[in-house]
């Protein structure tokens, strides 16, 4: 199969891993997909939906058949999965991941797959949603979306090009970063907003008149809080994996809130107008650029 792979093992057949499998199947880049997971219910659903061709709850038993393994489980589970596959991998097998954090995953590769680093390609698709599980997998999730590769110094150019080619076949645009830059950027534009949405909705839900508030919550509330519907385990793992960068961002946000609080308390009309105008200009500019890139 030209530029494709024969057998792909997807560990964690949810939104991200399932969509990768579906997109590659549609592009004719993979012949056989084995889904590995924790729960039989989700794996059975993946099989019924045609997301995978075979299922297993035992990674060690199927790893030797893989031309490529994609780790698409929560980042907190990835070390255990690498450990399980390590003794069974074929020398040519590529191991990649889709985790939202990259510094921790690079360390895990070093710890558990030290003899296989040339074939290890850390990656992060910048696409997704608050939905999870095999039923959420979809063709087209990665169309015109970015995928950030953070290769290790030991990663072979062949393995890197192969993974880049597969993501491109899913419609994605490839970028490269160091793990540190990746984790800093995504703490700002992805991880912090998720924490803020979780904290805000939790705060509202804890109010004595929460039900009354929810009765009248509308599109502003919906748009600000959609991501608070995301998977708690996944976000617990991301938060702990990127703890240091997130603590910096939380402090920056705390200072911004403190400044805003002062403006509100002082009825500072000019200050408030300037705060909102600066944010609006930045948001409008970002959104125009996002649309120009073909993203929605
Ligand atoms: N959701 C997003 O928007 C998004 C975007 C980019 C990257 N990611 C990353 O992709 C990964 C998967 O996220 P998702 O949104 O597809 O989550 P998901 O919940 O839809 O799928 C994850 C799957 O992994 C399975 N799983 C958990 N522990 C496992 C284990 N030990 N062994 C095998 N399977 C296991 C779960 O049962 C689930 O089916 C995460 O690392 C996440 O950080 C998510
Ligand atoms: O759209 C969403 O719901 C997402 O949370 C997607 C999102 C993001 O923050 O943009 C979340 C985590 C990722 O690792 C990549 C993408």
From TrEMBL:
InterPro entries: 6-PGluconate_DH-like_C_sf, NAD(P)-bd_dom_sf, PDH_C, PDH_N, Preph/Arog_dehydrog, Prephen_DH. Keywords: Amino-acid biosynthesis, Aromatic amino acid biosynthesis, Coiled coil, NAD, Oxidoreductase, Tyrosine biosynthesis. Pfam families: PDH_C, PDH_N. Pathway: Amino-acid biosynthesis; L-tyrosine biosynthesis; (4-hydroxyphenyl)pyruvate from prephenate (NAD(+) route): step 1/1. It catalyses: prephenate + NAD(+) = 3-(4-hydroxyphenyl)pyruvate + CO2 + NADH. Residues 243-270 form a coiled coil. Its EC number is 1.3.1.12. Gene3D superfamilies: 6-phosphogluconate dehydrogenase C-terminal like domain, NAD(P)-binding Rossmann-like Domain. One of its GO terms (biological process) is tyrosine biosynthetic process. It comes from the Bacteria. GO terms for molecular function: NAD+ binding; prephenate dehydrogenase (NAD+) activity; prephenate dehydrogenase (NADP+) activity. It is an enzyme of class 1 (oxidoreductase). Residues 6-294 form the Prephenate/arogenate dehydrogenase domain. PANTHER family: PREPHENATE DEHYDROGENASE, PREPHENATE DEHYDROGENASE [NADP(+)]. Belongs to the prephenate/arogenate dehydrogenase family. This is prephenate dehydrogenase. The lineage of its organism: Bacteria, Pseudomonadati, Pseudomonadota, Betaproteobacteria, Neisseriales.
């Amino acid at each position: 199969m030209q530029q494709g792979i024969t057998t792909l093992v997807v560990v964690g057949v949810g939104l991200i891993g399932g969509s990768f499998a579906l997109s590659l199947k549609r592009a004719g880049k993979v012949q056989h997909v084995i889904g590995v997971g924790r729960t039989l219910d989700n794996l059975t659903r993946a099989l019924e939906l045609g997301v995978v061709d075979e299922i297993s709850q035992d990674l060690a038993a199927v790893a030797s058949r893989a031309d490529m393994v994609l780790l698409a489980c929560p980042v907190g589970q990835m070390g255990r999965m690498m450990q399980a596959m390590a003794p069974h991998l074929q020398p040519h097998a590529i191991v990649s991941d889709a985790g939202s954090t990259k510094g921790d995953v690079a360390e895990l590769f070093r710890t558990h797959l030290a003899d296989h680093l040339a074939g290890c390609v850390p990656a992060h698709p910048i696409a997704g949603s608050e939905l999870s599980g095999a039923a959420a997998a979809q063709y087209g999730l990665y169309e015109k979306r970015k995928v950030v590769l953070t290769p290790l110094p030991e990663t072979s150019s062949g393995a890197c090009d192969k993974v880049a080619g597969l993501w491109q076949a899913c419609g994605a645009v490839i970028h490269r970063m160091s793990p540190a830059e990746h984790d800093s950027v995504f703490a700002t534009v992805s991880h912090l907003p998720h924490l803020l949405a979780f904290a805000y909705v939790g705060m509202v839900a804890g109010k004595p008149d929460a039900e009354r508030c929810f009765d009248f919550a509308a599109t502003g509330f919906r748009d600000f809080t959609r991501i608070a519907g995301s998977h708690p385990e996944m976000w617990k793992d991301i938060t702990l994996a990127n703890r240091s960068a997130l603590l910096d961002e939380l402090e920056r946000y705390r200072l911004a809130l403190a400044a805003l609080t002062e403006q509100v308390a002082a009825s500072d009309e000019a200050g408030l107008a300037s705060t909102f105008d600066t944010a609006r200009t930045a948001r409008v500019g970002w959104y125009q650029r996002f649309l120009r890139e073909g993203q929605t």
